Amino acid sequence: MPKDVNPVTEPPHQSEQGALARTALVVSVVLLATADLGAKTWAGGALADGHTVDLGLMQLRLGFNSGVAFSLGDGLPAGVVLAITGLIIGALAIFAWRATRTATRTVRLALALILGGAVANFIDRATDGVVTDYLHTGWFPTFNLADVFITGGAVVLIVATLTGRDRIEVWETPEVAARQVRGPHDN
To answer: Among this protein's residues, is 133 annotated catalytic?
Structure first.
C-alpha cells in the first residue's frame, strides 16, 4: 500500500467496491425472490379453497397467469414462455452484473428489484407453467409481490435517469471530497 494512503479514511479500491456491489446485488436478488416465493407458497395454501382476504383497497385472492404481464402470451405453450422469459432474464442478469460495478446505489437498487422479481416469477413458472398471483384490486389484473418489485424497480430506474441520480457523484463521501479539494498527495 502506498505510504500516503490511509486505509481508515480512503475508500476501498474500485475493484473491491465492484465486488461488494456485485455481492450486494446477488444477495438482494436472492432475498427478494425468496420473499416473493414465500408469499406465493403462503397464498397457494391459505387461499386455495377460494377464500379471500379483504384488505380495503385490495383483496388477497388466488389466481394463476400462464402468460406474462397482463396475460400476454397466455395461449403460448409454457415452454415457449419459459424460454423467452429465461433469455430476457439472462440478458438482464448479464447487464446488471456488468453495470453494478460502476452504478449508483439507486440504479443498483432498481436492478436488484427488477431482477429479483423476474427470477421469482421465472422459478414459479418453471414448476407448473403458471405464475401464482394473489393481489387483487378489482380494477387491475391480479398480480404478485414479484410484479411489484419489477414495476417498482422500473419506476426507480426511470426516475433515477430523469433526475440524474443514475450518475456516480464525484464527491460521494466527505473524505473523497476533501481529497479532491486538497489533492491526493497534499497534507
So the answer is: yes
Active-site position among 36, 124, 147, 166: 147
pLDDT, average across residues 8-30: 78
Q: Phi then psi for 67, rounded to 5 degrees?
A: -100, -160
- Kindly report the three-state secondary structure assignment for every residue of 20-39: HHHHHHHHHHHHHHHHHHHH
Percent helix / strand / coil, the chain, rounded to 5: 60, 10, 30
pTM recorded for the entire structure: 0.77
- Render pLDDT for 71-113 as a digit per residue (tens, 0 to 9): 666 667 777 888 998 999 999 999 999 998 888 999 999 999 9
Per the residue annotation, which of 36, 124, 133, 166 is the catalytic one? 133
Residue 128 a catalytic site member: no
